[in-house]
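Chapter review: from sequence to fold.
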Amino acid sequence: MRSITAVFLTLLVAACSGSPGASPTASPSPVSSGLPQGLIAYVTDRGVGVLDPATGKATIVAPLPPGAFRVAGPVWAPAPGVGHPAIYFTVHDVRSPEGRTTPGVVPYDWLFRLDPFAGSIEPLAASMDSQSNGPFGLVANSRYLALTVGCCATYEVDALDLTRAAGALKVLSKPPEQAAFFTQGAAPGNSGLLAVRAFGTGAWYWLNADARVVNPFPLKLGPDDGPIAITADGTLVAVANLDHGAVIQPINSALPVASPSATTAVVSNPTPTPSPVSATPKRVNSTLHHPDGIAWSPDGKQLALAVNGEIELYNRAAPDGPPAKRYLTGGNVIGISWSGPITDRSEPALKPTSSPQTVVDALLAATKLPAAADTAANRPLTRVYVWQFDSSKTSPIQSINDATPAILEKYPPLNASVVFHHWATVDSWALLGGCYRYRVVITGSVAPVASTFGLASSTPCSAMPSPSASPT
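The token string follows.
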């Protein structure tokens, strides 16, 4: 499982702008020319950063504190209302968890969207997760973002529809009803095809996010191969190998003609029927160990690897051998993603944003039990009721002050429970960003205490000077 465990490295050092070991920089890309070569997003032990491959200049745009979070991603994908892609990544809180008699955190998984040109970062969803090391295998195209969460035989694949302004992640595959899969890549464009590898057997499939069915994968890959990256035209795939760098080979990333019915459920034990590949795979530095990340340039002429803690660039036409360029040597790079051409922005316009920890800690503060309820005698009696509402318009939920039987019947709450000194929603990705807000009533051991909070702000969108668009 080296290809999975590599994602679970802990970030160690507080962040700031710039990156160690970056190649000497030339003049920044001029505004008039845009960024035809795109930008490379990366994760190091200093945070989430952006590298301009034309100049070698690297900038940390989302700093992360030492040892506080595990990160998955980054990936470039569309964002609503802007003409350039944004960076998506997840964090999992690995600080000391609270206990019955000790302080600490409630561990959450978080999905963030970052616009490095606007200097903005927003939480899209949060989910309590005390059973795993957090999400991994974050992949995306222009239609879907997908990831794997869970542990052992309970791994599930969740996806976010990027064509919607706001909304919940949907479960594509979850044991025991469906198979346990690891997300490994995505077909380009607006395709619904996600490359997945089955837990246990290591067999590969297309998981169709549109129809929630599995299709045969067109290549025969090994149980320890992956992740993969497919060129923008969908004709070539680069596959990270366990001990021999990467290989490039042709692929058909079109929707399979013999697609199962859209009403067919994801089977628990699918049988792969991969098609043979006539072309000989081309090796990319076969002396390397397993790459942690892999990404194509917009034109498909260069391949970037996150390997040995650095970013290495290889020319596709070059023979098997060392990289053409190295960046961030010694920077402990653990993930990369290469954007498409960016025509409306330039590298000098990059704006670092605040640390995701600010948002994470705000949720911990909002979910702390009242002091009177947080006692050994009262915690078993404490009841927590949580309702979600769209704050861009007036809702009767936002004025709920008590969980009376009439209110509970009319407005069924989310599943929530006490977790030592905090409370938390129980269902996966129950907390969403955007204009969603949450009304909370804590009662049972104390007189009813009501409050409202949101992942990004507790102020309703309808009360803001420029309300955000209503979630759809």
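Two observations follow directly from the output. The first strand starts at residue 40 and ends at 44. The two ends are 38 Å apart (CA to CA).
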